[in-house]
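Let's practice the habit of predicting before peeking. Look at the sequence and jot down your guess about where helices and strands might fall. Then scroll down.
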Amino acid sequence: MALSEMEDGAYFVKVKSSRWRKTRHIQLSRDHLSMHVRHQSCGSKKHKLIDIKKLTEIRVGYQSPIWENLGRKLPPSELCFSLVIEDENNPLNLVAVTPPSAQLWIKGLQHLNANLENLDMKGQQLLWTWEHFKAADKDNSNSLSVKEVKKLLDKLNFAATSKYVDKHLQEFDKSGDSHLSFEEFTDFFKKITWRPEIERLYKKYCDADLKLQPKELVRFLQNDQGMNDVTNKMALELIDKFEPDEEFQSKKVMSIYGFTYLLMSPVGDVFNHKHRQVVMDMTQPLSSYFIASSHNTYLTHDQLFGKSSVEAYIRALEKGCRCVELDAWDGDDDEPIIYHGYTLTSKIKFADVIEAVRDYGFKASSYPVILSLENHCSVQQQNKMAEILKNTLGSKLLTAPVDPQENTLPSPEQLKGKVLVKGKRLPKESESDGEVSEEDEAADVEENGVKKHQKSKKNIKLSRALSECVVYAVSRHFNGFADAEARSDFHHISSLNEDKAEGLAKSKPSDFVKHNQWQLVRIYPKGSRTNSSNYNPLSNWNVGCQIVALNYQTEDEETYLNQARFRSNGEAGYVLKPPCLLEGNFDPINITKESAAVDPTSVKVTVISAQQLPKPPNNENDVIDPYVVVSVFGVDADRQSQKTSVIEDNGFNPMWMNDQPMEFNMLVPSLAFLEFKVMDKDSKGSNDLVGLYTVAVQDIAQGYRHVHLETKGIKKLTPATLFVHIEIENKLSGTGF
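Done guessing? Here is the structure:
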């Protein structure tokens, strides 16, 4: 009933600001398998379709920042909701005419969204096939002509001859009308996507009747996949979950289709599916963890003219970011604001950001959020900031030590659900406002819109009230490792720009590692990166720096590598540093086979095949010639790269059956990443990136695995995958991970 009412549509008011409000007609559009929200201006024939798959969140009531800015024009909460849409910077904010209408759409969209998220592998594949079928059906006849099928196959990187297509179309054209219905096309598509490499693997374990018994599934998972804890009961559960054939399911056996779906699922992913939840010890001091961190979190684009947005904080927090930056300045009407000072970036209210932290800080992760506060405010507005922090965050704001007798930083576990403020703090003996030196990053003065470091920092007035909001991350200028050890303690944190950090990592790596074993360090981009580009975080992680802040708004290889780092441990935003960084005098620069921290490990990678690779954005015409580059990033001694041969004219189902395994020998696998990069060989120019995937070596699952490819912007290229075999051996113990 609800869906039919949604198909009839309803009128809403679309809200962009207190001055911009327009009436829109919204209705649900359904065709067979796919669904869209149709969004149309009143009196206009033009409309916009929003794919339900692209709805990443449905916010009920006043959850989006826009509502707080409407003042007296604010509609009742029960009429308001916001749709967060993939690739859109701002949500679609809607006001319903009546509460029942709002509830109908909120619950209806939540239901449809949940159904899509819970689709099994068969359902996902069917939906993908339908969407491409509909796109190819240019005359809306609900069938595809021979010409339309050939165009679709070309789009899908399938370089088939006309003879091949004609032969198979005749085989599946049951109606004999030279067209394929969706059901006929689905059978045809199943034929051309058949996986002979999986068939060979399946036949190693199935019985004479081509059925995989539970005990044989256990044997495959233990022997080939390294899943030693699998039991017969777990095998039965996997059959129940992945077997699409009801007859096979009732007999408690698995068909080749169920076996394929299993290998395509998270259980068969190259990323160890157990690491999708928190698996690390979270009771160590904060200094023992890498912490997901954002620089100038408020910006959506560049550092000079970009828009500041509360939504940028929400997006960062929803990605698992645990340290966000706030550049606070005096605003009008005693309201502190956040923006990139001395630039033309727009301004947002400090209060709105703190409300976003309250509402979204602990949705993706329950572990502590750190507010890196760069304070440029007068004492009066600092007092206002302290008031906002305390009133908005309440008990979430940490205002006292966890244990007054402690001599190390508390753990993420002890600080669950807490917000920490990083900033300057007055001496304990000070009873009133006082002077402190400004933040290190604030000391980078503006010159033609570019920050440059000034040697002598000025003092600023600090309010007592704001000072009391800072407990553990007490900002202190870095004057060298000896000075830090003699004159600071575990409460302090130093901020270094990327150049200074890189210099220390190269000149005094062991000292840097030891310093990071007991005190927090934050690294931030140099001021000349006005386009919001990023530095490579690897060298900072290799010496144990915890808070390596990047411009999250920029989709580049650096933020992609950062995502790979924090994909681990349930995307909690905290990753325990390896033992070599937690004790001893590890030197990541001058490492040798004789170094104490060395853990020699071999990773053998065999690239077997690829499935349904897309064409690169700048090469939509030709069928691609793919090859795969596999690289290791980590300490300098472990960096290496190998590649497969080139498969010509086949991006649909290329196979590398004649390629030899690639062997990567590593000295410090605990700091290493494995990158899979699919490239399109271009004989006339530079080769194009098709898709990639990066995984920390400690997160790799062994055996026959699928690598689900993504863009640099961390968008999935479904259903594009690589099928690989991975074997890991520790050279000291002779065992895998």
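How did you do? The two ends are 52 Å apart (CA to CA).
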